[in-house]
Amino acid sequence: MMTDPQKQDPRKAKLLSIIPGLGQFYNHQVLKGSIFLVLFLAFVAELALAGVRQIVNLITLGSTPMMDNSLFMMIEGTLQILVLVVAIILYAANIYDAGNIAKQANEGKKPSTSLVQMIKNIGDGGFPYLFSIPAYFLMLFIIVFPVLVTLFIAFSNYDFLHVPPAHLLDWVGFKNFTSLFFLSSYRQTFNAVFGWTIIWTVVATTLQLFLGIFTAIVANQDFIKFKRAFGVIFLLPWAVPAFISIMSFSNIFNDSAGAINVQVIPFFNKILPFLHLSLPAWKTDPFWTKIAIIMIQGWLGFPYIYVMVTGILQAIPEDLYEAATLDGASAIQKFNHITAPTIFTVAAPIFITQYTGNFNNFSMIYLFNSGGPGDVGGGAGGTDILISWIYKLTTGQSPQYSIAAAVTLLISVIVIGVSMIVFKKTGAFDLGDD
């Protein structure tokens, strides 16, 4: 039986594409094949001129102090890895495209062979890809690149004793991670800081969520008058820049000259003498500092939740409440079965981001009291959370960049892991089967 000479062989097209562009030439797509071939030759040239050397330097991190800068070698090698990843993706796309076009030709679809046809095909079917591919490339080099550099630093000995180019860096494997968990000087600090970070995140965020939901529900009741005025008042903490508010509160909570200890507490002691309120050491006692920053964060964070929940409440049909009233439901039952489920179904992703945001809330911790008072070791103060401890590890007199990078990776794993688990459990981003 004779074979149709016009038939294209997808397998042959893919085999020819081992050298990028040849498969497209086989499919009579000279322009596309030329593009793939030029990109392939450019990558080979880049690899020969600099790429191989940069990958080798990434592995060795240099051999001669003052001449070799280990940090630059690490950065350049990381960039080269990303270039290699992009090249592999394009190489795979080249093979897939050659086989797919050959298959389409056998089905009677004429492949584009000119620039005009290629542009028309992109406009018809590839328009979304045309706009999304640049975004992916930007993400690769703006997000993935710094993360990879941080990852590599975490596995090196980059500290105040090894600062390039005067000293070379070495790969130390998991030493920095094991030091955090097993070396006494770091283990105690990490446990103290991590424990307080969890407490701070849970308590402060839950407080601002509670205040936001509570004020929104109360302000949304029909018997409340001057709702617009209350709305303006509740938005005031959100209207003022957070760093200004935090620094103002830092002065207000000053132990000896702040308004809380000088005016507010003495006022209550005067009108209610049986209370005998003492003057807390807001800035010099870690316990009271923690209480202060939790209260301040609740005040700063609730307006956003108030606005969002108000919008959700206004979208709930009144028919649901009227039907519940006819069925004899109490106010608490209405809240439990109508209001609360609606709020948490709609706002669950935002609530989760509030927790993850406070987990890394550097401004609140550092601007109020620089992570103090007290010292829990390793350069960390009594109210430092992980992110502010990282800052001190990298800016102190004896910077520990590799340890800071290791802590950064642990933070990322914790935040991403917890967020994904909660998102999965709540179905917050479940967009259905479509």
TrEMBL record:
The keyword Acetylation does not apply. It comes from the Bacteria. It is a multi-pass membrane protein. Residues 194-422 form the ABC transmembrane type-1 domain. Pfam families: BPD_transp_1. CDD domains: TM_PBP2. It is found in: Cell membrane. PROSITE patterns: ABC_TM1. Keywords: Cell membrane, Membrane, Sugar transport, Transmembrane, Transmembrane helix, Transport. The keyword Ion transport does not apply. The chain crosses the membrane at residues 30-50, 71-93, 135-156, 198-218, 230-253, 259-279, 291-316, 401-423. Belongs to the binding-protein-dependent transport system permease family. MalFG subfamily. PANTHER family: MALTOSE/MALTODEXTRIN TRANSPORT SYSTEM PERMEASE PROTEIN MALF (PTHR47314), MALTOSE_MALTODEXTRIN TRANSPORT SYSTEM PERMEASE PROTEIN MALF (PTHR47314:SF1). Part of the ABC transporter complex MalEFGK involved in maltose/maltodextrin import. Probably responsible for the translocation of the substrate across the membrane. This is Maltose/maltodextrin transport system permease protein. The lineage of its organism: Bacteria, Bacillati, Bacillota, Bacilli, Lactobacillales.
